[in-house]
Amino acid sequence: MNFLKVKNISHTYFTKTSATTALSDISLDIAEGEFVSLLGPSGCGKTTLLSIIAGLIKPTEGLVTLEGKRIGNKSNDIGYMLQQDYLFPWKTIEQNIQIGLKLNKLLQKDRIKYTLQLLEKMGLKGVEKQFPKELSGGMRQRVALVRTLATEPKVLMLDEPFSALDFQTKLHLEDHIFETLKSFNKTAILVTHDIGEAIAMSDRIFLLSSRPGQIYKTFIIPDELRNLVPFHARNHELFQSLFQTIWKELESLEVIR
């Protein structure tokens, strides 16, 4: 049985005067513990697909199942991390990372201990009583990841989580998130415009065509890169050749569009 299955997903946005098809007949099978990325031209439906998989949008056609069960809205099995950290500025870091637990009535001693251990694992020991404004952008994003992982979701959705960060911070955070997710064997889906980021972090990359989005090509990342943390993967000799291959495919889609 496939862990996460996306079957024949199509989606159309309707207004009073028009209908716009964002996605057309997309099917994916994602294994437990796998890290995949969605690449494609702007407007190809990457975020729409992510939202459908997360159960936030009901597709026009098709279905998404997790461990054989259909994903519904407000599923605790799905964690979502966005570009912005959306930390509450008036709450301490400790209070922020426990928000999901509180909302799901899971605020128990063992869970609280678990979130604090996660914070330490992310290199943030000692910031529990601080407020978001006292932390850097990269630290805030790590806090946001801890908050997302606190409820122990089975699948993590990452919607361009590094795009607002400077390049050096982005590289450090890629390594932090990659190592954390691998250590917990978490399944993750990343939406990004950054080819290098997708190669460095993923097991597979799905390249979507221009609207309506369809799976145009699938790239399997070589083991030589997959077994390295993102920073070292970027410096491997295979990285640049794969980057150029994907770049050319993506450029051809932009021209077609």
Describe the structure concisely:
The protein has 10 helices and 10 strands.
What do you see in this structure?
The protein is of the alpha/beta class and 257 residues long. It has two domains: 4-77 and 154-256, Rossmann fold (3-Layer(aba) Sandwich); 87-152, no CATH class. Helices cover 37% and strands 24% of the residues. It has ten helices and ten strands. The protein has helices at residues 46-53, 93-97, 99-103, 109-121, 137-149, 167-183, 195-201, 223-226, 230-233, 237-256, and strands spanning 4-14, 19-30, 35-39, 61-66, 69-70, 78-81, 155-159, 187-191, 204-208, 215-220. Strands 6-7-8-3-9-10 form a six-stranded mixed sheet, sandwiched between helices. A hairpin with a 6-residue loop joins strand 9 and strand 10. The chain is globular.
Provide tags for this entry.
single chain, 257 residues, alpha/beta, Rossmann fold, 2 domains, 6-stranded mixed sheet, 4-stranded antiparallel sheet, 10 helices, 10 strands, 24% strand, globular, AAA+_ATPase, ATP binding
Task: Give the SSE map.
Blueprint: E1 4-14, E2 19-30, E3 35-39, H1 46-53, E4 61-66, E5 69-70, E6 78-81, H2 93-97, H3 99-103, H4 109-121, H5 137-149, E7 155-159, H6 167-183, E8 187-191, H7 195-201, E9 204-208, E10 215-220, H8 223-226, H9 230-233, H10 237-256
Parallel strand pairs: 3-8, 3-9, 6-7, 7-8
Antiparallel strand pairs: 1-2, 1-4, 4-5, 9-10
Helix pairs in contact: 5-6, 7-10
